[in-house]
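Fig. S4 source data, part A: sequence.
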Amino acid sequence: MFLKTVFLCIMGFSSGLLVSAGVFTVLFVVGLVPRFAGKTNTACYELLYEECIIFGSMIACIFSVFPIKGSLGALIPHASFLCQALLVLFGIFAGIFVGCLAIALAEVLDGIPIFARRIQLKKGLDIAIFSVAVGKVTGSLIYFIMDFFELL
């Protein structure tokens, strides 16, 4: 039983590292952080921005694995107001982040036709893009359907 738990912990931690490495790779390949630092003339804080992204992702992962249960009202006076304020603040920052990421990915997608011409891909690009879209939609549907049935 102990070895099984240790093995599951190692596998979970390793999988989490791989997924987070993929997410951070996408963020940095797209050039989101350097572009923001360049536009705001704060290039000296670029490492701080990257560390904040990593720290925020780690905190979100911790809260998703270990959700806060029960009422915080007994521990902190006016906790419901504090929680709502933090939720609003998180929503604003998450919305800004998703919007900027979508714009950066749209700019990267402009490079697909150039890449296709360079490798002299004449046929099949539309099928490849369609396959990626179908895979993404299928995976999302499976995830949300399983999540829905878990709530019931």
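Fig. S4 source data, part B ends here. Residues 2-121 form one domain.
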